[in-house]
Amino acid sequence: IAVRAARRAGRGTARRFDPVLGSAAERRARLREDLPGACARGELAVAFQPVVSLVEQRIVGVEALLRWRHPELGEVPPAEFVPIAERAGVIGELQRWALDQAARAAVALPVLHAPLRLGVNISASHVAARTLVGDVAAVLQCTGLAPERLILEITEATLMAGTDDIAVDVEALRLMGVHVALDDFGTGHSSLTHLSALPIDVLKLDRDFVARVDRDPRSRALCESVIAIGRALGLDVVAEGVETPAQLGVLRGLGCGFAQGFLLSRPLRLSELTELLETGAGALWPGLVGSR
Ligand code: C2E
Ligand code: MG
Ligand code: MG
Ligand code: MG
């Protein structure tokens, strides 16, 4: 069957046939089938990636990243299962769980200088379903997380889809005190003019630009203008996916305020994050040492 499915998938679609997992289509169907119960079976978890202030040289926040460990297929990346969850109509459920877990964790974290901010990714269909305001309000109420600590990460494409309904919801969230970040900035189509009209507090500079910032003059120019615009508009700019000291050095030179990436820390389990906060109090962020 798998062979036939792979053949049917046709030429040029780059589907590889795997004798164990079957075709890409079979894998998707399997994930689609198993996803609804994954939460109840305890297969989901939230990882936390530190966000570091390049000015204060310390951790000021974390981004919550959903993890799914499938009993047979192993770790399934969110880039693969989130779109499946959207199409299957279970993203709301998943998202509420992730928000709740992340918020519970955040309120229990040790506090060093100030309570860490918490970024949570929100998918387009969750925004479109219009349950987001209620879901966020419920989580804040249940967990006691201060709204100012929560940053909802929404992609350019979602915000730019910009129906009036979405604008109303985002405005309601900001009136509650919740912050909004424009995720993966640079990959979508928002013009810089449009940016000033968007209801956001944080700009997350996409990894694609950060990856070449130290080698490609065009990436560097793009990062430079985004950082400058961010400053002009009073937005925090976070560089995503910083992997090398050279990248970090250039970003700092350009005046970028915040960074996250494997150089600073990979996404951590809650126990690892807690330990880091308990033992690292007051210390300079290790990844920053020698990176000036
Ligand atoms: P994102 O929001 O842009 O998250 C950043 C991704 O980059 C994460 O991948 C993170 O592990 C990865 N990353 C961080 N630093 C580096 C680095 O230095 N190098 C490289 N190569 N990668 C780095 P992850 O966890 O696989 O998540 C992928 C995407 O899935 C996220 O992109 C986000 O759009 C989505 N996602 C994750 N969790 C959730 C969630 O709870 N809800 C929704 N709706 N989407 C989620
Ligand atoms: Mg994000
Ligand atoms: Mg991002
Ligand atoms: Mg990204």
From TrEMBL:
<protein>
    <submittedName>
        <fullName>PAS domain S-box-containing protein/diguanylate cyclase (GGDEF) domain-containing protein</fullName>
    </submittedName>
</protein>
<feature type="domain" description="EAL">
    <location>
        <begin position="28"/>
        <end position="281"/>
    </location>
</feature>
